[in-house]
Amino acid sequence: MTYRILTRMGDGERVTMSAAEIKEDISEGIRDAAQSAEIPELTAGESEQLFNIMAEPSRTVSVSAGEEVVVTDDGCSMSFYAGQDSSGIGVPLSRMQAILTYERACAADTTSIGHSDYSFKPVKPIINFEMNEYYTTSMMTTAPLFYGAQPNMGLYFQPDGPYPNPADLLPQGKIKEACETQEAAAEQLRNDIVFVGKKLNSIGCEGLNLDTCGSAGDADLLAALQAVADLKKATPDMPVIMGGSGEFVLGMHGDVAFDGKRLAGMYPQDQAKVAESAGASIYGVAINTNTNKSAAWNIARAVALVKAAVAAVDIPIHVNVGMGVGGVPMMEAPPIDTVTRASKSLVQIGKADGL
Fold first, then answer.
1. What is residue 246's predicted lDDT score, i.e. its pLDDT?
2. Does the predicted TM-score (pTM) go above 0.85?
């Protein structure tokens, strides 16, 4: 009987594969990353190391002592009080209670607080309440406390916002109008991020987390980069983290640039470069998971992309390792067996500075 290795698919399905099949998927995942992003492939030794991690029989795996990395988060404490439809467990806790539980019971390296909507636009009108909540909570925490929110430029388009929706204009062939409305929304988003950031800095914010930058395309990423550059001039001592929304910047506008670099089509290594030039303290790369491929394929591909991003910049790279990114299956409650294998591979082979 052929030896079979228990593993998963990108959608979390539990499957068994032979050693040869896993090795082949690792090779294919690496090739796909190299061809897509025009980056070097992993070495034969690194591929073998990755196979050994995937084939390890233990339910969970870990790095060796002394190789641990810092874990940053984007609202993990929300899982305590959020409903099950949002991957939470619905415990009746306040935001502060959840943060303190996460810090003290889970031994978190960092903690964070954010509005339940987790976007800058709805935070702006209630910033005084958020400042008070942040300040009070920061007096109780020991680990670094970040304030997190998404740029989420989609909220600035109709029917939620004031600007015409490019998704309505583009099918009508109104390309110029679609570009103009994105530029206008991006400028408003930039101003809102800077406004919120300055207010939080005034009460001692220990770090601002711009989560899922570029979710509405290249103009969304442009607004985030410009806001970071503005904040680094106005509040130079406040660390700013940027997290990507995907491995490939969608060209919804197609012709916007930052620091002379066109944003549409950027892969993680180039995203990290513009984040660094804007003044970001940490960049969180996001590598999409293919649900039709195996965990071995997805993790190998993520590792190759992350290794290239780490080598491209001097700022720390913290990989997004969650639901459907970083080699982790697309599940609301990702399985620990695959999460730990992805994490170990990204750190030991991809040389990620954090997760």
1. 94
2. yes
Residues forming beta bridges with residue 16, ordered by sequence position: 6
Q: Which CATH class is domain 4-348?
A: alpha beta
Q: How far is Cα 261 from Cα 252, in angstroms, rounded to an integer? A: 16
Least confident of 11-25, 74-88, 190-204: 74-88
**Tokens coding 211:** 């989560």
- Between CA 338 and CA 327 the distance in angstroms is 8
Ordered alpha helix ranges (H), 56-126: 78-81, 95-105, 120-123
Nearest alpha-carbon partner for 123 in 90, 147, 100, 158: 147
Number of neighbouring beta carbons within 10 Å of residue 324: 22
**Do residues 93 and 100 lie in contact, with contact meaning Cβ atoms separated by under 8 Å?**
no
Q: Greatest CA span in the chain, whole angstroms?
A: 66
- Residue 4's contacts (CB-CB under 8 Å, 6 or more residues apart) are 16, 17, 18
Cβ atoms of residues 77 and 111 within 8 Å: yes
**pLDDT single digits (tens) 250-297:** 999 999 999 999 999 999 999 999 999 999 999 999 999 999 999 999
Q: Residue 85: is its pLDDT beyond 80?
A: no
Identify which has the larger pLDDT, 298 or 82. 298
DSSP H or E stretch at residue 282: strand 282-284
Q: What is the pLDDT of residues 299-328, one digit of tens each?
A: 999 999 999 999 999 999 999 998 999 999
| Domain ranges for the chain | 4-348
**Exposed (0-12), middle (13-18) or buried (19+): which is 312, by Cβ within 10 Å?**
middle
CB distance 196 to 149 below 8 Å:
yes
User: What is the spatial distance between Cα 275 and Cα 280, in angstroms, rounded to a whole number?
Assistant: 5
User: Alpha carbon 28 to chain centroid distance?
Assistant: 24
Q: Reduced to 3 DSSP states, what percent helix, strand and coil does the chain have, rounded to the nearest 5?
A: 45, 15, 40
User: For residue 1, what pLDDT is reported?
Assistant: 42
Q: Which residue has the tokens 């607080």?
A: 113
Q: 60 Cβ partners below 8 Å, 6+ apart?
A: 336, 337, 340
Could you tell me what percent of the chain has a pLDDT over 70?
Answer: 99
Question: What are 146's strand-pairing partners?
Answer: 112
Sign of CA dihedral 247, 252, 254, 259: negative
